[in-house]
Amino acid sequence: MSTYFSNDKKSIPPIYDVKICEQTGFLMGGKIHEWSGPTESVYSTVSIENPESGRYLGKYPLMNSEHSLKVLEAAEKAWDHGRGKWPTMNVDERINCVKNFAKDMVKNKNQIRNMLMWEIAKSAPDAEKEFNRTVEYISLTIDALKDLDRNSSRLIHEQSIFAQVRRAPLGITLCMGPYNYPLNETFTTLIPSLITGNIIIFKPPKKGVLLHKPLLQLFARHFPEGTVNTIYGDGREVVTPLMKSGKIDVLAFIGSSKVADILKSLHPDPHRLRSVLGLEAKNAAIIMDDANLQNAVNECISGSLSYNGQRCTALKIIFVHRNIFDNFMELFISGVEKLKKGLPWEDDVKITPMPDPADAQRITEIISDAVDKGAQIANPSGGKSQGTLLFPTVVTNINSSMRIAYEEQFGPVVPVLPFTEISEPVKYIIDSPYGQQASIFGKNPEKIGKLIDPLVNQVCRLNINSQCQRGPDTLPFTGRKDSAEGTLSITDALRVFTIRTLVAAKDSSENSELLKSILHEHYSSFLNTDYIF
């Protein structure tokens, strides 16, 4: 499948253009090491020069298992069984390192934003939003860690025992983020794991690698040697030996449950592995017959098609009460057809090319499968495409034999089904292997209230008269069933990458003097009563 093509180089605003990025190094042990082995070329599906292969953006290393294990050695050295500089550093010092990193990161905003647009075809406003939200997330994480540390900054006295309870790091974290939010989603695991004292091995997603290049020098500059390390290449080649080593303490992975299960199974001591997983979802919307129709339509269009539907929190299937189905469809189709399609830098563009031709082909096959089994494309431009630019497709007359009925499409195709009894969409959600979120649209408090109780035991966020979403980041973000493991939010993330640990001593005059001396002379980073302002 060819790329979305424009032959007018002048159409690219200079502010959004990028230079070729030759990513020839990897971060290990606090230094950028040059890679002389094989590399992977990166092409954009937003094409200016070549409508078949796409614009050449640069390259990155294709590392092998040998080099992957060398990176692990550097991480082990930095951890040093919990005795390394970073894990034993006091919280205030770690916070300052992260602050300085974020300050320098902001200086690279335009470069990172533009590479988001070219690598994954994200619109300019969405790319800018992803960067800004990531910087805000770092700031909020710092504030949350201060609060957490303040609450732990005193000794408690229980049953003749003095104790101080704090959260301690777990060890070496392998961070693997998704292509759709390669900066933000990656940093929602990397930053809380890092700031709490863990050592990081970071593997960028296949799409969204080059945008991280300017950050490598910043990691090397602001953190002790080996605190943050990077690997690149095929996951089977570079991740498999890491997991098989048994030396990965935390797996922070956002992707498919199938891959997550494989990774976890490779670890020789799975009971010692902490997993923080963001996985698939098939979030449903239920439109009641008394819903504010225009609001429901607006929320469902945005919820299902923002960034081409390539979001785990996107609405993936919509159930509409039969009494209002025709009216809903008329408004929904009209709104979908008005969505502007085009290049990421164009004003008001909503639908951009798919970043991977293979994904574009997969979506085309999902639509064809549905049509072959009796589904109908409801909107005039549905099913059409220009290279990897897929026009949003609204599909009706769905049955359970179709892939679109149960598979997470992760693209711009929206199945809409009528229902008569509320038990129909509820049964769908109960039977689904996924349990991230759902949305309910309606006005009747009794009906909505009776829906809340069963559905909160199926999904982890129920949105009333609004689309599914992750934010704000202060709220818990997780899922039931095959949708997640572990909870991410600003505060939850700090907890999931640490373990409650305490120092305790019997109440005696000798121990009292000992503890006073340790505290007064600041002999310990863990055992202290300093208050962070």
Structural category: alpha/beta
Number of strands: 27
> Tell me about the biggest sheet?
7 strands, mixed
What is the CATH domain class of the largest domain?
Alpha Beta
**Overall mean confidence score, pLDDT:** 95
The level of helicity is 25-40%
Our estimate of the beta-strand percent is: 15-25%
CATH architecture of the largest domain: 3-Layer(aba) Sandwich
Q: Distance N terminus to C terminus? A: 56 Å
Q: Overall 3D geometry?
A: globular
Given the structure, what is the number of helices?
A: 18
Low-pLDDT stretches are none
Q: What's the name of the CATH homologous superfamily of the largest domain?
A: Aldehyde Dehydrogenase, Chain A, domain 1
- Strand order in space, largest sheet: 17-20-21-16-15-23-24
Number of domains: 2
- CATH fold title of the largest domain: Aldehyde Dehydrogenase, Chain A, domain 1
> What Rg do the Cα atoms give?
25 Å
